[in-house]
Design brief:
215 residues; 8 strands
Length: 215
Amino acid sequence: MAPYFAMFLPTICIDPGHPSEVGRGTHGRHMTEIHAAWEVAIDLKDDLQKMGFRVVMTKTFENQFVRNRKRAEIANAAQAVLMVRLHCDAEGGTGFTTYYPDRQGHSEGIKGPNQIVLQETKPIAIAFHQKLDEDLRGILNDNGLKGDEATAVGHKQGALTGSVFSKVPVVLVEMVVLTNPKDESFILNPANRKKLAHSLADATKTALSKGRIMG
């Protein structure tokens, strides 16, 4: 059982992407998306806990299969103040992109997220991405903050599956373009992964502070 005080700490849910019902994700020549997301997630968890957050993970081991609906339900059950989803892109280009639900979508007969979640997520996503850009400027290219609809799944459904079922604010970060050799080389370096995790932690704390979630 968690310590008594832990029940009163703001909870962050970290969702290291894949494997899920949509597959095992992308890969470069030397690293898979699953491994990159897991490694950054572990470092991010450590940084957030040092900042005073309680952290829950959607997976207990790297190659655990978890459906995207279940990932959202884990964040919901934890009453997380934010769900941070970690992925790597496979399209052309380089750098990172942040996505968030800016409208409702449909999946498995469910319409979501609700309007309250949409309203709460937008200012958090804006502050989150601004801080991430500030921390990573000159290190990784910023491809912008975009709505879920800019993704293939989001375009089809209106929102990503993990957003549709989310009852808490949620952002998804495509940390690098893993099929780009330069980006893969960056994230292969443990020091760079720690830097990326620390920037994600700073972005989380800044976004929630501006949203007055932390008091």
